[in-house]
Design goal:
By secondary structure, this protein is an alpha+beta fold.
Length: 402
């Protein structure tokens, strides 16, 4: 097919770190490929990328052989190298995962085994050894993971945007997609702009299922937004680095943890509560269309029936600062409610299947002239460089097929 009449070869929807990593990978894997990135906000990284704790995850949690494990281990090393190359603030700090209850000890030991299977250096600590790393933290046992770090992911996204050479369309809210097998893809934005490409990559995060449906592809899942609420620690000297609880394997969230960020402040959180809008960063943000979409999806009800007890605890910690502080004191006994200062929240785009299953791994699907990133959970920012290469590989294959 001739290139005449197309604004680009590959049209990427979504200016978060995965979309920008994809654009970056495309122009490196196939020099001369024309890439356009459409982002509805006035700049990059305004949602999940720019509203997280900034952790470079080691990969210790993830099932060996899973995409999350493979991409996180590889991506952590690449992210540190990328930050060093482009002078982006970062540090390899290591972190503690701490068991505070005897029932957590078998899960902690399982993490040791999982980390070693993933090729990650893990040191087991007894009760008295925890203080070597974190004098104010208390627990029965812990593990130290040396490859965990922190960085400024917003700065990473901006650098990817610059280095990609892609044409960037900001303020481009996609409202319609016309895809034809022999004529490529045309995208209409809310301001009337039309952008035409030979293939489309959907990295729309919180809106990825909607974009998939606009192309005519049924994704088989829906995004259910969960808000992660954070506090800032008023006494950051209580924490030297990163401290995590032992996660509950039944739920794909890591629990309330303490993260010393690249700016020296300590974030506490997040909890995870259902958001009343896909970009619902507070209880006061309600979008009836988003709520209706959640309630109309059978998987949302099945998920609620299975996880109501866990969810109830998260909701209580959302409305009760005292309850949140009690959860933190399991790890850090010195914390009082007054030490917790409200900070900006984030929203996680959680893919939920029709049967109520919460998708725990990366989910990539392909359609005619389209690649959809339908679940990019933590550690997506950590793993964004290898994920971008994989998505780019599939997009280039879609171009070749046309």
């Amino acid at each position: 097919m001739e290139r005449v009449g197309y604004d680009c070869d590959v049209l990427v929807i979504g200016g978060g770190i995965v979309g920008l990593s994809t654009a970056y990978a495309l122009t490196r894997a196939a020099p001369g490929t024309r890439v356009a990135v459409l982002e509805k906000e006035p700049g990059p990284a305004r949602h999940q990328t720019g509203r997280n704790s900034g952790v470079i995850h080691s990969g210790v949690y993830y099932r060996p052989g899973s995409l999350k494990a493979r991409y996180a281990v590889k991506g952590a090393a690449e992210m540190v190298k990328f930050c060093a190359e482009y002078d982006i603030p970062h540090a390899v700090t290591g972190k503690l995962i701490v068991a505070t209850d005897r029932a957590e000890l078998p899960r902690l030991h399982a993490l040791v085994q999982r980390g070693r299977e993933n090729g990650i250096p893990v040191r087991e600590l007894g009760r008295s050894q925890i203080a070597e790393y974190e004098p104010e933290v208390r627990g029965l046992a812990a593990i130290h993971v040396g490859t965990t770090g922190i960085c400024d992911y917003t700065a990473v996204a901006r650098r990817l945007a610059e280095a990609s050479g892609a044409e960037l369309y900001y303020g481009a809210d996609v409202v319609r997609i016309d895809r034809r097998p022999t004529r490529g893809v045309a995208v209409l934005t809310a301001d009337g702009t039309v952008v035409r490409g030979r293939a489309l990559v959907n990295c729309a995060g919180l809106h990825c299922d909607r974009i998939a449906r606009l192309t005519g592809d049924e994704p088989g899942m829906r995004i259910i937004p969960f808000r992660g609420e954070y506090y800032e620690l008023a006494r950051p000297e209580l924490v030297r680095g990163l401290v995590y609880p032992v996660p509950d394997p039944a739920f794909p969230f890591l629990g309330v943890h303490l993260t010393r960020g690249i700016d020296g402040g300590v974030h506490v959180g997040p909890n995870a509560v259902p958001a009343l809008a896909r970009e619902g960063y507070g209880w006061g943000t309600v979008r009836p269309g988003d709520v209706a979409g959640t309630l109309a999806w059978p998987g949302a009800w099945r998920m609620a029936r299975e996880h109501w007890r866990y969810g109830g605890g998260e909701l209580w910690r959302s409305v009760s600062k005292g309850a949140f502080a009690r959860a933190v004191r399991k790890l850090l006994p010195a914390v009082e409610s007054g030490d917790l200062v409200a900070a900006d929240a984030g929203v996680r785009a959680q893919a939920v299947l029709r049967d109520g299953s919460l998708v725990d791994d990366f989910l990539l699907r392909e359609g005619v002239r389209a690649v959809h990133v339908l679940n990019a959970p933590s550690p997506a920012a950590t793993a964004s460089l290898p994920i971008g290469r994989e998505v780019a590989r599939r997009a280039l294959r879609a171009l070749d097929a046309g």
